[in-house]
């Protein structure tokens, strides 16, 4: 399988060495990007959309964990392999909050690296097989399925699944059971794609390899497949409901207040979700639905507005303002400020001083 791989490490010899090892091991593995700090890695990942990102933890201008966090917030669907020195490995545990599943310690063992890449390749191939099943479900019904899952309405969900499987029954001979099994897998993957935490817990409940052909290979009738699809999607809804707060609480309003009170430190989506005992992905979707913007943009806007005020009204150094609004890397802060405001912090302050000197 063809793979696009990005490597981010502040030691150029490591980047070049890994690139040679990877491309020499398999002609289908292509190192499409090489970055030497977190900001470069972020920009390359946005531009290239790699399948795999191999990154060191310790890097200047946003470390590997910051880069992974920001790429997750941006919606980059890559698998990460995180590299750390032995003494730093304990800090890699924080990466698990960002969905990182693969870890390597320095010096890197070639066989471990190759094994991780092969495993990721297999996962990507499985997802591609599911996505390539025959397109026999009308687009409108897929929208109805998504709406039923978003609303966590099992009655609507059951009605949609029944309608879809009526189509399957009408084409039973044409499609055959193998393709019908693929379609069943595709429906479950599509219906739960917004709920990765629910999917993980369903996997734990029903056993491993739920989303493979093997998991449905013993289902030999359309009715069995229909029941399996409905029960899987219903289970995802029930898990999400159990993880979320009662509708009586205005969690978004409370979360906004919490963010306003804590934006000057390194708070994460997971921290906020844990504080309110709510599923992180569900909270993220709910926040955007009620406010029109993502949690990350809301947090960044608060920080940038505070930074502007400090630049206008105080003589604090840029690095002091950076720390005051919750960032640890001055270059990263300046980059975000420029993206948000349109000029670097120093230029913004100079512009303020120029305007002040010309005022009557």
What does this structure look like?
The protein is α/β, with parallel strands linked by helices. The protein folds into 3 domains: 3-131, Rossmann fold (3-Layer(aba) Sandwich), CATH 3.40.50; 139-243; 251-358, Homeodomain-like (Arc Repressor Mutant, subunit A), CATH 1.10.10. It contains 17 helices and 5 strands. It has a 5-stranded parallel sheet, with helices on both faces.
Please outline what is shown here.
The chain has 17 helices and 5 strands. The chain is of the alpha/beta class.
Give the SSE string: EHEHEHEEHHHHHHHHHHHHHH
Quickly count the helices. 17
- The amount of helix comes to 55-70%
Strand order of the largest sheet: 2-1-3-4-5
Strand portion: 5-15%
Radius of gyration: 24 Å
Q: Which regions have little confidence, pLDDT < 50, spanning 5+ residues?
A: 196-200, 205-209
Shape: flat
Alpha-beta classification = alpha/beta
Question: What's the number of extended β-strand segments?
Answer: 5
The CATH superfamily of the largest domain bears the name: Response regulator
How are the SSEs placed, and which strands pair?
Layout: E1 3-8, H1 12-25, E2 29-35, H2 38-48, E3 52-56, H3 64-74, E4 79-84, E5 102-105, H4 110-131, H5 139-151, H6 154-170, H7 172-191, H8 196-206, H9 213-216, H10 222-243, H11 251-262, H12 269-275, H13 280-291, H14 295-313, H15 318-324, H16 330-341, H17 345-358
Parallel strand pairs: 1-2, 1-3, 3-4, 4-5
Helix pairs in contact: 2-3, 5-6, 6-10, 7-10, 8-10, 14-16, 14-17
């Amino acid at each position: 399988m063809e793979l696009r791989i990005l490597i981010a490490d502040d030691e150029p010899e490591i980047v070049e060495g890994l690139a040679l090892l990877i491309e020499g091991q398999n002609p289908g593995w292509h190192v499409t990007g090489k970055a030497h700090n977190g900001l470069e890695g972020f920009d390359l990942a946005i531009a290239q959309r790699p399948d795999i990102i191999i990154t060191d933890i310790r890097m200047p201008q946003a470390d590997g964990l910051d880069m992974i966090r920001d790429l997750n917030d941006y919606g980059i669907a890559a698998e990460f392999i995180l590299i750390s020195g032995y003494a730093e490995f304990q800090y890699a545990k924080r990466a698990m909050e960002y969905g990182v599943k693969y870890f390597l310690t320095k010096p890197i063992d070639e066989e471990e690296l190759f094994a991780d890449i092969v495993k990721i390749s297999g996962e990507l191939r499985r997802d591609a097989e599911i996505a390539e099943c025959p397109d026999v479900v009308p687009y409108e019904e897929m929208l109805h399925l998504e709406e039923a899952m978003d609303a966590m309405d099992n009655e609507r969900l059951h009605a949609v699944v029944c309608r879809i499987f009526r189509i399957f029954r009408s084409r039973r001979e044409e499609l055959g059971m193998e393709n019908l099994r693929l379609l069943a897998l595709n429906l479950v993957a599509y219906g739960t794609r917004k709920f990765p935490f629910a999917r993980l817990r369903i996997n734990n409940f029903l056993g491993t390899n739920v989303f493979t052909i093997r998991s449905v290979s013993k289902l030999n009738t359309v009715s069995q497949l229909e029941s399996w699809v409905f029960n899987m999607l219903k289970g995802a809804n029930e898990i999400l409901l159990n993880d979320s707060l009662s509708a009586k609480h205005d969690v978004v309003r409370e979360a906004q207040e919490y963010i306003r009170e804590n934006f000057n430190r390194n708070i994460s989506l997971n921290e906020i979700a844990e504080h309110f005992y709510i599923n992180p992905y569900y909270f993220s979707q709910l926040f955007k639905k009620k406010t029109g913007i993502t949690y990350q943009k809301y947090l960044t806007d608060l920080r940038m507005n505070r930074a502007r005020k400090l630049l206008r009204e105080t003589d604090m150094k840029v690095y002091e303002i950076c720390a005051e609004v919750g960032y640890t890397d001055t270059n990263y802060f300046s980059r975000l400020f420029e993206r948000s405001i349109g000029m670097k912090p120093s230029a913004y302050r100079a512009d303020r001083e120029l305007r002040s000197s010309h005022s009557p």
